[in-house]
Amino acid sequence: MKECKGYIDSIYSGSAVDGKGLRVVVFFSGCNMACPFCHNPETLYEKGEEYTVKSLVNRIKRYSIYIKRGGVTLSGGEPFLQADFVVSLNRELAKNGIKVAIETNGHVVDKNVIETCEYLICDVKNQETDDLTVYRQFLQTCKDCGKKVELTCVIVPTVNDCEEKILALKELKNEFADTVFNLRLLPFRKLCVEKYKKLNKQFLYENKEECDKLLIEKLNQIIQE
Fold this sequence. Notes:
The chain is α/β, with parallel strands linked by helices. It has helices at 42-45, 53-61, 83-95, 111-115, 133-144, 163-175, 193-199, 213-224; strands spanning 5-15, 23-28, 49-52, 71-75, 100-104, 119-123, 148-155, 180-187. The chain has an eight-stranded mixed β-sheet. β7 (148-155), α6 and β8 form a beta-alpha-beta unit. α2 (53-61) crosses α3 (83-95). The N and C termini lie far apart (55 Å).
């Protein structure tokens, strides 16, 4: 049988913001979206490095002592686009006692992938649309699989910081209250500008204002009311 292979952009060890506890973050190459605020454009435009499941597991195991209270987060890019590799990877990590979370845009629903992770982090892309229907399908599948989900949303001033957008997020969270354990608003930043220049690509949100802490606090109050 041909060994399953995947394409990985990069691996970061020591993250404390990509899930519970200290984590290794594996950034997958390839994405089905091209978000104008994307901070990882290299995952969209570059192929990445080829890994077998065995070689990636061995790489991750180097950090086992540091992530024993956390785990591994599969990010990207979009991990769900490499479903067979992710399923095989998650099963091997589980054999080694390593827990896995998956960061996803929620636009690709694969029950087999969902079933093999501990929980999921779904970033809601409401910057260019008001239609959140696609996330209901994703969350329903997670619910059916008994998996918890943290919702995140990047807040871009003047783009999706209005009350209507925030209330729609709140409604989505409440609709799946037994599945969604948190809704986390993320401030828009422009730390990725140099990446776009290096790729000779346009950063579509380069002229947008960054989001400050006070705005996040204000919007969180709407969610909590």
